[in-house]
């Protein structure tokens, strides 16, 4: 079974989320959490961009132990030098050099010809390799790059010493079929890549970042880049927790394992949410507040009989204590009865329970969220059940 590595960029691409700004202490705290979560490589920042980013990369390099620490650099010597300086205390340093290769970027942003781009890749990857053992190259906007030129750019980077090739879907333009085929195309047209790790990096503009990453894995990617909770530019990056859980739950299909400690998913997600100030949407897969909540009567009845009926993973797997059966107008008598017991009303007769259930249904038609105190009020306000002893 192959092992898929995770490269976390919550502190670099994730910090490009509008409004997000982690300070150095927060970054070090996050880095330590990500290391204990089982992340293989952490992109700690872009050292040339500011003294603060340089300091954070440097502090993270000193603080972490086994995880690879990565610094981002454009194809410029001063960027590469800054990354080298910032990472000099890292046990496992890596540099990530990038240059755009799509016609749109070369023409409008870089004002460079194809030949100039290839020459720059050769010069700067060669220079990076003189300072780092682990060198990653990313052809930015790869999915909108003309394929033959993309292969030339990647081959140039490999020949100059890159050992990790990342294929960014910079603007979230690709889809799973196309992105998977792109990995096939690259790996069957590049030479001398036996020791090269191919990595995917997806953005979520069309809501396909997780699906695209999984398609890349199916087609030879050995590493996934992403962020916790999917934070990042515009609609964000691939959510690492989604890919990790998909690989675990569908191990039968992907035949892959990871180094992620899944039970630390919730606490890692909570930390990023709290420090980034970006709340998690209730219906977000895996970590959303409703991901393990069942409201309809049929689902609640099924889950109470056997959780497997409506849960493909246990809440404990991601570090939650339990699932949740919120009471609403669609809830059935099974979940309602369970709630009465949970609240200590254990001696009610079936008739008394039925009366309370009918009253609950009337209330639930008017009130979206039924709270424990509403149930207590129903019991207290009911002539029959006031005689019941409350066994708390
Ligand atoms: O999305 C992107 O292209 C990037 C690169 C720096 C890899 O984040
Ligand atoms: Zn990106």
TrEMBL record:
Alphabetical UniProt keywords: Amino-acid biosynthesis, Branched-chain amino acid biosynthesis, Cytoplasm, Leucine biosynthesis, Manganese, Metal-binding, Transferase
Catalytic activity annotation: 3-methyl-2-oxobutanoate + acetyl-CoA + H2O = (2S)-2-isopropylmalate + CoA + H(+)
Biological processes per GO annotation: L-leucine biosynthetic process
Gene Ontology molecular function: 2-isopropylmalate synthase activity; acetyl-CoA C-acetyltransferase activity; manganese ion binding
This protein's pathway: Amino-acid biosynthesis; L-leucine biosynthesis; L-leucine from 3-methyl-2-oxobutanoate: step 1/4
Enzyme Commission designation: 2.3.3.13
Cofactors: Mn(2+)
Residues covered by the Pyruvate carboxyltransferase domain: 4-266
SUBUNIT field: Homodimer.
Protein family (similarity comment): Belongs to the alpha-IPM synthase/homocitrate synthase family. LeuA type 1 subfamily.
Protein name: 2-isopropylmalate synthase
Originating organism: Vagococcus martis
Coverage span on the entire protein: 1 to 392 of 508
